[in-house]
Amino acid sequence: MKTILLLISLIFTLLAVTSCTNDEGENDLDFISPDEEEQLALLETETKNAD
User: Is the pTM above the cut of 0.85?
Assistant: First the structure.
């Protein structure tokens, strides 16, 4: 009985791990420098203040 429960939990664990992986590729990430991030934040605050 313990063996069956162990196998079932192992199957569910494998399903959970494999479903959480991102197979679409890693090129979707945009790396920005801290200066670029600061400029974007300033632009966002300026547009919010303009409204």
Answer: no
